[in-house]
């Protein structure tokens, strides 16, 4: 265990990510099927900013509480199934927010007076705001346009900086991240607000960053192994193992402040507005870290192995000690060694086990004799 952790920190693990790529593909396919099914069956729980409606805010005083607010709505013959009632905390001040669909002016006034009476406050102390669904549609349209422009610019940049196969793999990974994140909100009926949309656009940047880190290492190793007969699957495996610790550190460093917002800001201090943004970030960061390893990089390997340059070595993978030898020496295990190992195996000769650490560690250099 200790040896494995030390090799992880040094970037010397030999995990066969590319050889197990189908596990990630199957898991993502199942999640996307659930997402599509949930979107068709129950859709998204859109907030008031997208559906339109009325929002009341009343101070917590007298008999006012979330339960009392619900009683007032029921008394006015309003169904509370899709009504959102929250207690907002700001320092020592607490307010109850009630969000529901559009109401006639007379009903709106009656509810406002009832809330004020329950809170021992004046009618002016109960704020009432209305939101048109047109505003929400405009925000959605602009967000989609921004997303498409972002995809286009990113594709052009990656294709210019690296190649079109990397651009295509990165875009598919980002679409995957958005799809899974939307699926989580649909399945668990989490409310989608403008803050959620902003968070979705934010996580695309993190997903892209994590993917580019891996692709940059793949690009470097492709040049490093250009003179050797190494399959592109081996290049992907070596690169992912070398940046694994960096990806984990980046993901953990990004998730910690988000968890602080979600647990401390929203849960302990009662800043409900932070919950919508932090929750979307949490889901997006997790899927972004996952997709860079199990979606983007394996897709790149599949596309590159179909090229003329790498097609002859397609399907050849160095695993275990062979991968360690490749990482340490920059060259695959020679044909003679492989043939000798096959001959020994056919004759029942079992070779002595060689530890991966032995290949990934350098022997100590002899000390030079000091001149007198």
Keywords:
two-stranded parallel ribbon; 4-stranded antiparallel β-sheet; 372 residues; single chain; alpha+beta; Multidrug efflux transporter AcrB transmembrane fold; Alpha-Beta Plaits; 14 helices; elongated
Question: Which strand order spans the largest sheet, edge to edge or round the barrel?
Answer: 3-4-2-5
Please state the CA-atom Rg, rounded to the nearest Å.
Answer: 29 Å
Counted by DSSP, the helix tally is 14
* Average pLDDT, all residues: 79
Largest sheet: 4 strands, antiparallel
CATH-level-4 superfamily name of the domain at 135-305: Multidrug efflux transporter AcrB transmembrane domain
C-alpha end-to-end distance: 46 Å
Number of extended strands: 6
Which outline best applies?
elongated
| Secondary-structure element series | HHEHEHEEHEHHEHHHHHHH
Chain-wise SSE layout:
Elements: H1 2-10, H2 21-41, E1 45-46, H3 48-51, E2 53-59, H4 66-75, E3 84-90, E4 93-100, H5 105-118, E5 127-131, H6 133-161, H7 164-187, E6 191-192, H8 194-224, H9 232-242, H10 244-268, H11 272-305, H12 321-329, H13 335-346, H14 356-360
Parallel strand pairs: 1-6
Antiparallel strand pairs: 2-4, 2-5, 3-4
């Amino acid at each position: 265990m200790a040896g494995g952790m030390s090799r992880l920190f040094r970037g010397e693990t030999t995990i066969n990510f590319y050889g197990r790529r189908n596990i990630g593909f199957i898991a993502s396919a199942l999640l996307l099927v659930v997402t599509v099914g949930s979107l068709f069956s129950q859709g998204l729980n859109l907030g008031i900013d997208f559906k339109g409606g009325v929002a009341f805010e009343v101070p917590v005083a007298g008999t006012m509480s979330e339960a009392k607010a619900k009683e007032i709505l029921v008394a006015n013959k309003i169904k509370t199934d899709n009504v959102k009632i929250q207690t907002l905390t700001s320092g020592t001040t607490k307010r109850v927010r009630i969000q529901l669909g559009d109401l006639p002016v007379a009903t709106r006034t009656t509810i406002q007076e009832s809330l004020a009476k329950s809170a021992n406050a004046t009618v002016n102390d109960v704020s009432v705001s209305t939101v048109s669904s047109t505003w929400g549609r405009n925000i959605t349209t602009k967000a989609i346009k921004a997303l498409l422009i972002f995809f286009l610019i990113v594709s052009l940049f990656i294709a210019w900086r690296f190649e079109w196969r990397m651009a295509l793999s990165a875009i598919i990974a980002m679409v995957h991240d958005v799809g899974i994140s939307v699926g989580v909100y649909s399945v668990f009926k989490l409310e989608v607000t403008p803050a959620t949309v902003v968070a979705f656009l934010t996580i695309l940047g993190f997903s892209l960053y994590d993917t580019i880190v891996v692709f940059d290492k793949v690009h470097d190793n492709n040049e490093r192994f250009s003179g050797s007969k190494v399959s592109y699957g081996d290049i992907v495996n070596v690169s992912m193992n070398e940046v694994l610790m960096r990806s984990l550190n980046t993901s953990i460093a990004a998730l910690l402040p988000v968890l602080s917002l979600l647990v401390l800001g929203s849960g302990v201090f009662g800043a409900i507005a932070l919950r919508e943004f932090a929750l979307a970030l949490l889901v997006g960061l997790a899927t972004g870290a996952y997709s860079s390893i199990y979606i983007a990089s394996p897709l790149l390997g599949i596309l590159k192995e179909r090229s003329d340059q790498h097609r002859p070595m397609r399907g050849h993978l160095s695993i275990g000690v062979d991968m360690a030898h490749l990482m340490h020496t920059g060259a695959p295990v020679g044909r003679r060694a492989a043939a000798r190992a096959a001959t020994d195996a056919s004759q029942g000769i079992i070779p002595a086990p060689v530890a991966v650490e032995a290949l990934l560690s350098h022997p100590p250099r002899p000390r030079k004799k000091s001149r007198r």
